[in-house]
Structures are given as structure tokens and as C-alpha cells.
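Re: that backbone. C-alpha cells:
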């Protein structure tokens, strides 16, 4: 996968993550589900391309948009557990949906219930 292709997938993942979260906030679950499907397709495209790596998403762990860093952390837990858990720990202290989702992701990961990515 060329760098430009990888960059495009990372941007698509970030955009879909942001739109997914905002659709949830306004209760538009059809749009949220469409963006979740986009995220899944991007992950699958990264997985099936012999030149791609899930590690291309690593910079998103430090993204200024918490909804993007949250989604990246969830999908990168298997790839970089330490950094992903660190990101989730920083987010889980928030008193909003991001904080709740980060806390749940950590709990499910620690309980062995969640194996995304």
C-alpha cells in the first residue's frame, strides 16, 4: 500500500470515527451505523492489504479529537496494548460519553470480552 493510500485510509477512519460519535450524540443511529460500517471496512481494507498495517492508525491515539483517539485506541488494543490503554485511561476520566465509552472499553478488554482490530 502506498503511503498516500495509507494516509487516505487513516483520514477515512478518523472522519468516520468523528461522524459516528456526533451521530450518536444527536440520536441518529442510522447515520451512526453507517459510519461504524465505514470504520469496519477501513479496518478490513488495512488487514487484507499485504502492504498495510494497523500501525498506520497509531498517530490517531494522540489526535486532538477525543472521539477519534478513542476509536483508534479500541482498534489498536491488540497492536499496541500499552499505548492504547494509556489513551483510554486518559479519556475515561471525562464526564461525558467519551469517558463512559473509554471506561467500558478498558473493562471489556481487561475481562477478555473485547478483541477488536
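Recovered sequence:
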Amino acid at each position: 500500500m502506498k503511503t498516500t493510500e495509507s494516509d487516505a485510509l487513516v483520514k477515512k477512519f478518523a472522519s468516520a470515527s468523528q461522524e459516528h460519535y456526533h451521530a450518536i450524540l444527536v440520536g441518529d443511529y442510522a447515520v451512526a451505523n453507517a459510519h461504524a460500517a465505514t470504520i469496519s471496512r477501513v479496518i478490513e481494507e488495512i488487514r487484507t492489504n499485504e502492504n498495510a498495517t494497523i500501525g498506520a492508525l497509531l498517530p490517531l491515539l494522540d489526535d486532538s479529537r477525543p472521539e477519534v483517539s478513542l476509536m483508534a485506541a479500541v482498534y489498536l488494543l491488540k497492536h499496541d496494548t500499552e499505548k492504547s490503554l494509556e489513551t483510554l485511561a486518559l479519556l475515561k476520566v471525562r464526564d461525558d460519553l467519551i469517558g463512559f465509552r473509554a471506561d467500558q472499553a478498558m473493562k471489556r478488554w481487561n475481562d477478555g470480552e473485547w478483541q477488536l482490530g
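The mean pLDDT is 92. The chain has one domain: 3-110.
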